[in-house]
């Protein structure tokens, strides 16, 4: 009888885990970028919620973190030099410690770029600036402060900055690092010269999809235990008769 209960439990539980993994992978996010902060490497992004992320250099484990309920994670590594290139590898594991994803990441040595954004010699605040590498990947985002100033701490070779905002014309500038830029923009005549902070876009909806995944998973788990308890009660009653 115990073996029968065990087999029935496995037949119910295994499909539940597969269903959860299926829904989680549907909502998977893969934004990833890195930057240097006070000689400490920061790698952050999104993946499957509640996954375990491991960062390696060759076979050496540099850091291990878990994603949160929205799939967000961040590695902080202070054992690498910002003046050198580094070949790293990220491995992703699910709740059952099964490797579900892996990928390589090249960290380029970076230099700092600072500057000021103006329009007709007037500082522009809250303008959005994106640091883009040669492969068109977004490495870092920032906004100008009250006086129009900005800074990027890790600028690789052949990078560029894209400036955008309401009331100004979009502009693209190549940067080399270790420089201070004065960026003078043209005002858009069709829009008022006020800059509003642009909302960062994400590949998927985060809050609603995550809650939906968790609701489905926990609902299936509750159903599993209700069925299992019912089987035990029925077996007990039959045995008592």
3D architecture notes:
With 241 residues, the chain is of the alpha+beta class. 24% of the residues lie in helices and 40% in strands. It contains two helices and 15 strands. It has helices at residues 2-26, 207-240; strands spanning 32-37, 40-46, 52-57, 60-66, 72-77, 86-93, 99-107, 111-119, 122-123, 128-132, 138-143, 149-155, 159-164, 171-175, 179-185. The strands form four sheets. A four-stranded antiparallel β-sheet has the order 4-3-6-7, with no helix packed on it. The protein is elongated, with a radius of gyration of 25 Å. The chain starts with a helix and ends with a helix. Residues 22-30 and 193-210 have low confidence and may be disordered.
Which sheet architecture does the biggest sheet show? 4 strands, antiparallel
Structural class assignment? alpha+beta
DSSP E strands, number: 15
Give Rg in angstroms: 25 Å
The helix-strand sequence is HEEEEEEEEEEEEEEEH
Task: Report the portion of residues in β strands.
Answer: 35-45%
C-alpha end-to-end distance: 15 Å
| Shape by Cα distribution | elongated
What average pLDDT do the residues reach? 76
Q: Which strand order does the major sheet show?
A: 4-3-6-7
DSSP helical segment count: 2
Considering DSSP H and I runs of 4 or more, what fraction of the residues is helical?
A: 10-25%
Low-confidence stretches: 22-30, 193-210
């Amino acid at each position: 009888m115990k073996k029968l209960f065990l087999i029935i439990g496995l037949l119910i539980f295994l499909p539940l885990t597969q269903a959860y993994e299926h829904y989680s992978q549907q909502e998977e996010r893969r934004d990833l970028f890195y930057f240097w902060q006070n000689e400490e490497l920061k790698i952050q992004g999104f993946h499957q919620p509640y996954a375990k992320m491991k960062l390696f250099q060759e076979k050496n484990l540099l850091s291990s973190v878990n994603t949160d309920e929205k799939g967000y994670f961040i590695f902080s590594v202070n054992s690498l030099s910002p003046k050198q290139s580094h070949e790293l590898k990220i491995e992703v594991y699910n709740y059952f410690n099964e490797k579900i994803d892996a990928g390589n990441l090249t960290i380029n040595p970076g230099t700092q770029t600072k500057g000021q954004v103006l329009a007709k010699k007037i500082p522009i605040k809250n303008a959005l600036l994106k640091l883009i590498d040669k492969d068109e990947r977004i490495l870092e985002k920032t906004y100008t402060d009250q006086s129009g100033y900005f800074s990027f701490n890790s600028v690789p070779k052949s990078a560029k900055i894209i400036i955008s905002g309401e009331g100004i014309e979009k502009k693209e500038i190549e940067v080399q690092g270790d420089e201070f830029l004065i960026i003078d923009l043209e005002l858009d005549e069709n829009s008022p010269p006020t800059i509003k902070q642009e909302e960062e876009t994400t590949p998927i909806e985060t809050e609603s999809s995550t809650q939906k995944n968790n609701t489905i998973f926990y609902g299936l788990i509750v159903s599993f235990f209700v069925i299992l308890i019912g089987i035990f009660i029925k077996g007990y009653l039959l045995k008592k008769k």
